[in-house]
From TrEMBL:
Its cofactor is FMN. InterPro entries: Nitroreductase, Nitroreductase-like. This is Nitroreductase. It holds the Pfam family Nitroreductase.
Length: 174
């Protein structure tokens, strides 16, 4: 297994997957890592839907504005915010912000866990939210916020450029 910093440096968004299954135990390891993510008030105001059915995965690709690479993946993870769960403790701020943060942090942990296991994914945030919720029969109130096709990589994308460190990071000066 890679050192954390090497993992962060080497992780790439992959949009091509080998035609081989991902063992359920590996998916479970990814999801258990996501479950360890910090959350506001430890409410864990999110849920994850695991999709393995190829026909359903193809329909999800269509709902993601025809990002057809999604249909190559043997597994898709859909991270959903649960605003009502967070609102119980934090009111409107929990509903509008904290639940989204909880789901996003869990998704980020999952993305790194996928890479640590030698698997690949690409964070997909462009989709028809209401149709995706309907297709997956999400209970009312759950909001899909990210979709991860997961599989064995069939490509090794080049490193994408980043803004200069000095442009992104600023130190406060009183």
């Amino acid at each position: 297994m890679k050192d954390f910093f090497a993992l962060v440096e080497d992780r790439r968004s992959v949009r091509a997957f080998e035609a081989r299954p991902v063992e359920p135990g590996l998916v479970e390891r990814v999801l258990r890592a996501a479950q360890r993510a910090p959350s506001a008030g430890n409410l864990q105001a999110y849920e994850v839907v695991v999709v393995r059915d190829p026909q359903t995965i193809r329909s999800l690709a269509a709902l993601c504005y025809n990002q057809t690479f999604i249909a190559q993946a043997p597994v898709v993870l859909v991270f959903c915010a649960d605003p009502a769960r967070s609102a119980v403790k934090y009111g409107a701020k929990g509903e509008s912000l904290y639940a989204l943060q909880d789901a996003t942090i869990a998704a980020a942990y999952a993305e790194l866990a996928v890479a640590a296991l030698g698997l690949a994914t690409c964070w997909v945030g462009a989709f028809d939210e209401s149709e995706l919720a309907r297709r997956l029969k999400l209970r009312p109130g759950l909001r899909p916020i990210a979709l991860f096709p997961v599989g064995w990589p069939a490509e090794q994308p080049a490193r994408t450029p980043r803004r200069p460190f000095e442009e992104v990071v600023h130190e406060y000066q009183p």
